[in-house]
## 1
Amino acid sequence: MKGPQIQRRSLLQGLAASTLVVPHWVSGRALGLEGAAPASERVLTGHIGVGGRGSDLLRGFLTNPGAQPVAVADAYHDRREATAAAIQGKAYADFRDLLARDDIDAVVIATPDHWHVPIALMAAKAGKHAYVEKPLGLTIEQDLICRNVFQEKKLVFQYGTQQRSSAHCRFGCELVRSGKIGELKRIEVIAPDGGAGGVTDPTDPPPNLDYEMWIGPAPMKPYTPSRCVTPGTYWIYDYAIGFLAGWGAHPLDIMVWGCDADLAGPMTFKGSGEIPTEGLYDTVIHWDVTVHMANGIEMTFKPGSDSTKFIGTEGWVDVRRAGISADPKSLLDIRLGPNDVHLTVSPRHDINFTESIKAGKEAIAPVADAARSDIISQMCDIAIRLGREVTWDPQKEEIVNDAEASAMMRRPMREPWRLEA
């Protein structure tokens, strides 16, 4: 038992340090993955964006008995070459060359936010399944197009909201959907706040960065040391809408997993927030949004920790990444019966993804739910930026009676990039 564990640990350390070379055909059993599928039965994955989050995901796929990472693409030359060497795979400067490979079954997209949907759509066009980090799109238009394309092509989509693969998050949502807190009346969502700052003085991009490719469909702007690194990638409006979506995706995803209040009918968004006027970062911070649902449920969204609190007529359940609490506490002792709601059980997010591909079934965090939660983030951003109430109709899938708000559902893309469906 100890031997395989050491081998697996050595591989992961080698990936992090980029010093250990492991053949791409190495068996799962050699990595300490008992029960690993034969190489011919594993899902071959290409990893697009292998920075901090992308490398974390890659380490997970390397310990996934049903996966075989074989290629990486990244705008940073040293990053892609070192990562490819660590897995003995192929490095690509242009992700489109990776997508052109017939042997790759699925891609893992962990780029800056503005690239998520454009790359996902090109992956779908190439017939690839996709694991896409949160948030989903840069706009509501991107959310809807991405959802429609993956559903029409019947490709598996896994959204990077890993809390769905946590047993306590699933249980909390099951309690709500099974009516154990009575009639749902209010939802309180909290996510970490963004921030101001960022160096604005332009300088030359580092020689190891293909800046043109990094910018891609976003407006071309002078390079600064804060632009292409965290938190700039999350807090610059050209590439994201800040933590309204970048972190809000997690607790908002739990909201849509635990109830369908956002589908009941038109939702009215009203809120306040600040947009920094100095420094490079210009996404909404310090927000305070109230959403009125068609079924009378009120949702609030504020900055703070990370939680989704469902409040009903007979108690409440608060679901957080770190745990779950409830009042009365006896709710946590409930054993759900056969007539209660039982949500999908996932051993691990990446494993659920590859198992879903092999079984030809929907993943635990499907594209329809990704679009639902991301549209809520987008609507909050639009309402704050306009400083007035805006209403979203989930049946018509449009903003009602506000032409200026409707125009904000889309953004132009820099040539030659398109949303390729």
## 2
Amino acid sequence: MAHLEAHNPPRMEETDAKLTCWPIAVVMDCAALANNRWQSVQWQASGVMNDIYPSGSAEQVVARDEQRTRTAHPGLSIRLFRDEAEGYLYNITAPEPKVFVLWRMHESGAKPERVTVSYHEGARWMDTDEKVDGVPLPAEMIPWIRAFAEQHYKPEPKKQKRYASNKDKGRMGRMD
């Protein structure tokens, strides 16, 4: 029995998870605003990096000076989904590929909530009232994204042009 189990292939979910998930930490900047009477600081996502922190780690201050604090927020992942393959191709072929970071304010400060490399999903987020920043996509991720997108992107077949016929008189005829 043990001999048969050793030759069983890994479950599809396990294989897919390794191929479609890249653990990252999002870098958030908090800059002091000197002459703004409405707010004292400004938050924005400034980058992503490989998640090198132990599972469950809290955010880590990576740089600090009088004007700015930069923190890494571990525990996020870029996940690839088949239905977003076209959006991945649009993004990685753009002049400046991006990771789109959706973040929200909490009592302790800004926290990244979700990330995507789909141009379409990033645009959908930007169309809402959410705070979304586009940060540079690390170059080492592009071959991984390209391979996935090319494998799963299926362009829609072109529709044949339909020309008017006698049957269309009532709908496409002239207006008298």
